Amino acid sequence: MKTIPTLREKKRYLAFDVMSEKTINRQELVREILNSMISIYGDKGASETNPSLMSFDGKYGILRCERERRVETRAGLACVNNIHGIRVSILVLGISGTIKGATEKFIQQTLVNKPELRKK
After folding, report:
1. Whole-number Å distance between alpha carbons of 103 and 16
2. Dmax of the chain from CA atoms?
3. Which of 6, 33, 54, 70 would you call most buried, defined as having the most Cβ atoms within 10 angstroms of its Cβ?
């Protein structure tokens, strides 16, 4: 049985950029984000945030979270600084209400404004 739209929890989509020395794969990134959230907020806080990696291409990604937990999600991403010995930094480009909005407003704008970042 589906939940009616007024009772559904609202989602937000965080567009982010991963700056690293080497390439990072999706599984490693997901594991490290979840570990970061759990270490900061515990199991209960991390489950209330409900982070879910929607897309990741090796440099840019979109992470879904609960609307009321945007700040906690940003803090969890900011605390990720090492993945299997590879130094990384995650920069949140912006927050949107839809995946399409996050992609168009933040990821594509970044690529347009900085053509040297485009993949070849």
Report:
1. 10
2. 48
3. 33
CB distance 61 to 84 below 8 Å: no
Q: What is the pLDDT of residues 37-78, one digit of tens each?
A: 999 999 999 999 999 999 999 899 999 999 999 999 999 999
The length of the chain in residues reads 120
Task: For residue 61, give the nearest of 33, 21, 37, 22 by alpha carbon.
Answer: 33
The CATH class for the domain spanning 9-117 reads alpha beta
Query: What residue spans define the domains of the chain?
Result: 9-117
Residue 90 burial by Cβ neighbours in a 10 Å radius (0-12, 13-18, 19+)? buried
Q: What is the CA radius of gyration of the chain?
A: 15
- Please determine, for residue 110, whether its predicted confidence score (pLDDT) is greater than 80: no
pTM: 0.85
